[in-house]
Amino acid sequence: MQQPHPAGEAGKGQPSGNQPPWGPPPGPAQQPWGGQPVWGGQPVWGSQPVWGSQPVWGGQPVWGAPPGGPPAWGTPPHNPYGGPPPYQQPRYVAPPKPGIVPLRPLMFGEILDGSFQAIRRNAKAMLGAALLAQTLAAVLTAVLSSFSATSAASLEAWAAGLTEQDLVPLVVTFASGILLVSVLTVFLSAVLQGAMVVPVARSVLNRPTGFTQMWSLARSRAGALIRLAALLVGGGLLVALLFVALAVLLVSTVGGVGALILIPLGLVCFVLYVWVYIKLMVAPAAVVVEELGAMAGIRRSWELTRSNWWRLLGITLVVGIMVGVIAQVVTIPVTLLTGFYTGVVSPHGGSEQAMTAAVVAGVATAVVTAVVAAAGFAFQTSVMALLYLDLRMRRDGLDIALLRLLESGADPDGVPGRGVPVYRAGPGQNPRPPYGAAPGGAWPDGR
Q: How many Cα atoms sit within 13 Å of 81 on the Cβ side?
């Protein structure tokens, strides 16, 4: 007579001498998912300890052993990063942002936002220096507007009595005066652009800067900035004079064909000017922050902008278009002031009232233009300074040095970035130093 299977009806057909290693299969009274032992008392998913000490799937502890038995899956692997499993990978920690930008290589939106915040946090220093840079041009514009409005008729009558030989030196003198004022404005702007890098660099570590403090920190670099401005302005004037001389020579020798040659030649000169401008854009910042001379600042700017020319060109074009559009939107209502006053408010006021309205409108236009130009100049300078810091973060690991400076709190009244060694990558090496290693082998505070 055949003996019944020890496991009951569920075990029929299975040899009694060849039991599965974990015991008999579950009978009718066993529940595989409710926390009851399955396959001979070993828990399977319903009571299996998984990942630590929290009760899961029926109240069994994680990474523990079921009551009365050995550990189900062995001991958990070592977690070198700490924290509870299963998060066995290091968690991402965002770089700190103590000031206007985070301490890492920057994106385009962060550069724009940081520029606005730099102006807002250092309004006296940034806008004061920008107004100083635009004052000369504003005064010249106001004087010319008033003079032309009050003397248009007399000038026309006076010019009608002059011969061609008398007009030539007059035009040359007038053009020379305008050129001189323009050169002085560009020269002053180049010098102030370097000084305005100081509040932007300090704002990265949330250190506000006043107008007096900005000049005290940039005073030692004034001579180098003046020499740099002289080199840049002199180089631009030399190229312009060469182009004008070549144009006169071509027109005088070949006539109309020379004018056709000047069109592609002018485009080539313009492209060359833009290329050199982008390559030398961060030279004032390098002179002030790294305490370099004029020629060394030019070489440093040339080195930093390598492999970043197109990116810098795109950012510069977008910022320039933004500033230009905003300036036009603000100044258009002021330019319409004269027509509105003479045509609507006082249409029968006479010539004297029209002249007075023209003078007032000219002066108001000059003032508003100066304020808008100062704000635009401050914004573009902030963008240039942040681009310089971004390039140094990408190439020299400046963000690591600034992080150490932030942690130590050293040099609270200085310029962040001064004294940081320049990282020189070898052939085939990453141009950016690895995290955890100080650029140049030492940190500026000696740690």
A: 9
Angle ∠(305,293,384) on CA atoms, nearest 5: 40
Record the tokens describing residue 33, joined without a space: 């998912």
Question: Of 149, 125, 193, 137, which is closest to residue 387 (Cα–Cα)?
Answer: 193
Whose CA is closest to 409, among 435, 444, 378, 441? 444
* The pair of three-digit structure tokens given for residue 71, joined into one six-digit string: 């550990």
DSSP letter assigned to residue 42: B
The residues facing 60 across adjacent strands are 56
User: Do you find a cis peptide bond into 55, omega within 30 degrees of 0?
Assistant: no
User: In the chain, what are the domain boundaries?
Assistant: 108-408
Q: Which amino acid is at 296?
A: A
* Residues 171, 341: Cα–Cα separation, whole Å: 33
Cα gap 435→384, rounded to integer Å: 26
Express each pLDDT in 6-58 by its tens digit. 444 444 444 444 444 454 555 444 444 444 444 455 554 444 444 444 444 44
Structural contact between residues 38 and 23, judged by C-beta atoms closer than 8 angstroms: no
Sequence-separated (6 or more) residues with CB below 8 Å from residue 378:
119, 126, 127, 129, 130, 196
pLDDT one-digit tens code per residue, 75-110: 455 555 555 555 555 666 778 899 999 999 999 999
Question: Do residues 189 and 389 make contact, with C-beta atoms less than 8 angstroms apart?
Answer: no
Exposed, middle or buried, 319 (CB in 10 Å: 0-12/13-18/19+)? Answer: buried
Q: Count Cβ atoms below 10 Å from residue 168 Cβ, excluding itself.
A: 11
CA dist., res. 386 & res. 399, Å (int): 12
Please name the amino acid found at residue 8: G
Task: Flag whether the pTM goes above 0.85.
Answer: no
Phi, then psi, of 95 in degrees rounded to 5: -60, 150
Spatial CB neighbours of 94, under 8 Å, sequence gap ≥ 6 = 102
pLDDT, one tens digit per residue, over 360-398 is 776 777 778 888 888 999 999 999 999 999 999 988 889
Separation of alpha carbons 297 and 194, rounded Å:
11
Identity at 165, one-letter amino acid code: Q
Residue 95, helix vs strand vs coil: coil
**In angstroms, rounded to a whole number, what is the distance separating the alpha carbons of residues 55 and 61?**
5
Distance (Å, whole) CA 347 – CA 20:
110
